[in-house]
Amino acid sequence: MPRKKIRKIDADDQVIEMLFDFSREENDSNDVLHSHADQKDYTILNRDAIEQRQDDDINNVANSLSISRAAAIILLCHYNWSVSKSCEKWFDDEEKIRKSLGLLEEPVPLPSGNELRCRICFENYPRDEMSAPACGHSFCSMCWIACIKTIISNDWGCLKLRCPLQSCGVAVGEDMINALATPEDKEKYRRYLRRSFIEDSRKRKWCPAPECNNAVEFIAGSGSNDVLCDCSCSFCWKCMEEAHWPVGCDIVSRILVEEKPCPTCRRPIKWNQGSIAVRCSAPCKYQFCWSCLRSWAFHGEGLFVFRACNQYRPAKEISEYGVTNECRGMAKDSVERYSHYYYRWATNETSRKRALANLQQMGTVHREKFIIDAWLQIVECRKVLKWTYVYGYYLADDNLQQIFEDVQGRAEYNLEELHQYAELELKKYLEGHGPSMGLNMLRDKLIRRTCVTGKLFKDLIYAIEHDLEGFISCMASHPAVHPASKRAWKER
After folding, report:
1. Which residues pair with 139 in a beta bridge?
2. Per-residue pLDDT tens for 58-90?
3. Cβ-contact 403, 490 below 8 angstroms
């Protein structure tokens, strides 16, 4: 099946999980900001696990409703592999379900006689060379093989196969596929059945990594959608993009499409059409050129009065056409603002990868819990801080932006202090000098910095997850916030 490309984490990311386990064994109540992907509200399923889980559901329904395995598969496919819904609908109105799905309560036997006529090729065959579904309409083996091959070649149709007789709607199930199809077609049928179990279910999805064949069964619980597959691919269950907790999917989706501000009202506008003539939505309704951000009227109204914008023109030349420099200035501001946030987003991702490498190095040199906790804190906080810059980029309210930047700034400053201190001590360890102070003093300093950083990032996460209420809570709990931000808060 086709898979979308997604960033695949370095294989060393698996070190995090191992060291988290080590940290928890030492003390379950530590202050390390654990990854939400580490809170297992999901199960990773390889091929064997998928087939076992599917067989369990099929047998569960078959035994509960006293129906055949083939009928249970047809029922589960119809209700998107929901065991509870399949059983509920069946008990509500069994007769209606049987009729709609073509499941007869009692099969019709084959007609009597030594020879029977195939209803497709109209040739006579010995009785033992004829087969029929529950309706009793008999067809020869060659016609059955051709019919099944045709349906299976049309992808998912084989899961809803019916009697070949046009006027009949009785279902043809797995039992007849296994008895009549070629080995190649049987394998295709099982593959489609396995795909249906994952792709039609609301609680299962494939891992988006290109080379991975694992699936994920997700159970809502912690509020986080982060998933870490066994192949080391970290992704969001909801939007299937790179894991981005605590920032919401709606914000992340905006960085994946081309977007520019309206030159008049500055509302973000997505370009999702072929023409570069774009009109802002009501009440603005300003029409402008997507390429140069000038008013569309600048380009003229016809072939012989059209002014192209494919050539670069300095700002002083633009004024010759009655267009002010404000539009170009806004475009430049937009690019610079994007560069500001993108640079910090990328920088924190680079820092996170370096911290991950240092974490692995320190894990081989020293296994003191407080040292491992400090590096785990750095790795996870770098990941969170990276995505907070995406959140900040799309925060339109200036007053709220100022409050957010104070909360973010305090968390970032303490993370930098912790990171610098940990790197300094790491270097001494790797050089064989040991800590620059007594072990007890080193422990106290690292534990204190780790704890403070973790609490500040939890405040930042709470603020983002609860929007304005979260920022107000942070303002109330931290009176040391900049006075300008307090004034901005009071003005709201």
Report:
1. 131
2. 999 999 999 999 999 999 999 999 999 999 999
3. no
pTM summary value: 0.63
Q: Which of 268, 309, 262, 302 is nearest to 285 (CA)?
A: 262
ω before 261 within 30° of 0 (cis)? Answer: no
**Token representation of residue 263:** 């030159």
Looking up tokens 């407080």 gives: 370
Which two three-digit tokens encode residue 484? 């300008």
For residue range 133-178, list pLDDT tens digits in order. Answer: 999 999 999 999 999 888 888 766 788 889 998 889 899 999 999 9
Mean pLDDT of the chain: 77
**Could you give the CA distance from residue 28 to residue 63 in angstroms, rounded to a whole number?**
43
| 3-class SS of residue 371 | helix
CB of 384 within 8 A of CB of 460?
A: yes
CB contact burial 326-356 (16+ within 10 A = b; e otherwise): ebbebbeebeeeeeebeebbeebbebbbebb
DSSP 200-221: S-SSEEE--STT---EEEE---
HSE-CB at 297 with a 13 A cutoff on CA atoms is: 4
Here the tokens at position 92 are 């509500």
Can you say how many angstroms the Cα of residue 326 is from the centroid of all Cα atoms in its chain?
40
